[in-house]
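User: Please predict the structure of the protein below. I'd like the answer in structure-token form so I can feed it into my own downstream comparison script.

Assistant: Understood. Taking the following sequence of 455 residues as input:
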Amino acid sequence: MKRREPNTSGVISRTVLIVDDEEDILELIELTLLRMGLEVERAMRVEEAIEKVKTGQYDLCLTDMRLPDGEGLKLVEFVSQNVRDLPVAVITAHGNTENAVAALKAGAFDYLAKPVSLEQLRSLVKSALSLPSAQPKVASDQGLIGSSAIMQHVRDMIEKLARSEAPVHVTGESGSGKELAARLIHQQSARRDKPFVPVNCGAIPENLMESEFFGYRKGAFTGADADRDGFFQAAHGGTLFLDEVADLPLPMQVKLLRAIQEKKVRKVGYTQEEAVDVRIISATHQSLSECVEAGKFRHDLYYRLNVIELRMPALRDRREDVPVFANFILDRLARHVGTARPEIESSAMKALQQYDFPGNVRELENILERALALCSGGRITEDDLQITPPEIVSREAAPSGSNGKWPLQDYLDRVEKEAILEALEKTRFNRTAAAKLLGITFRSIRYRMERLGIE
């Protein structure tokens, strides 16, 4: 790449590469960027743009999705794989969300729909130029600790997602760190200096949801004594984290979908809409796809929220990280109560590593807090942990005469697996016919077969 040279005032200028084959759009975007004090270079074809990226140095690339010699997606993929520091935004035809989602999945920073809104263009450019370097450091005291391969993958994903405006859906069991992951994405993003607003969707009464999300006007309803902003206005310029999003009732899902699509909200009692600039990160411990199939969650909202999925692993899936977690948590607990940190005996640490932690990190914290109170002599023993080894749990969970009905989930899985296998045998392993026989959809039987390990 060519070396970037400072201008006559000694300041290194910011340069944007715009790629489009329509002269009027090129001129409109170029004029807007020049007024923002930026330098602009043009390209009208994919291959021309790739050559410019190889030999030049740019701070942002804006590309149309349809070009004479191919798709802009090819340019997005090239930049994503070869020039990590260069954010790419795509321009799509109005209403063509499939192209936009494909670009975001390929690594695009964000997208604009035609006709291009100059206000949204300026906002996008400012965000892209505010991105931190491509290799931020994640401090261990932020809680995302552990050296396992699966945790390194999570860190890499967070770093990548922080350099995008794509909606992210974080999945994982309760206590696995979904909100922490969302906060780290925000803290490493161009929105890091703006608010991070977490919302527990399952904790808001249904009759208050609209006013809580979008705000209300004084006098809009009994008790509305003054104008008030909602979650969207509070998160303007930053990130709105929707935890347990699967708990949203269907009427609210419709309103949320419109707010995400239009990037506008209307307060209760107002007739005018106001523009909001928020990045949506959602999370749930449930399977959104199952909720969609059961008719509890809108497919179009699922499509909007689940552009990129980040899965937080359960603690039992990274047992090698348990000692690091345990010592980290004990250090913090000991500082909080003002005592010296006790040592964990090897047998106690082994017991922790063998334990399945249904409550994940949150449960580990509770176990160690209790052990800290019970231990003596500056050492935590296996008895101080008060956890039951897995083999004992298994024996206690299936007493004689139970016919293997405990634990309940294992029993239900076995019954479900037997029913699916019987249906498959009767239909000569025709999954469509088997699904019809079982009274479920094809998508449902495919998902259940994958979950139960049926080949």
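That's the full token string. The first strand starts at residue 15 and ends at 19.
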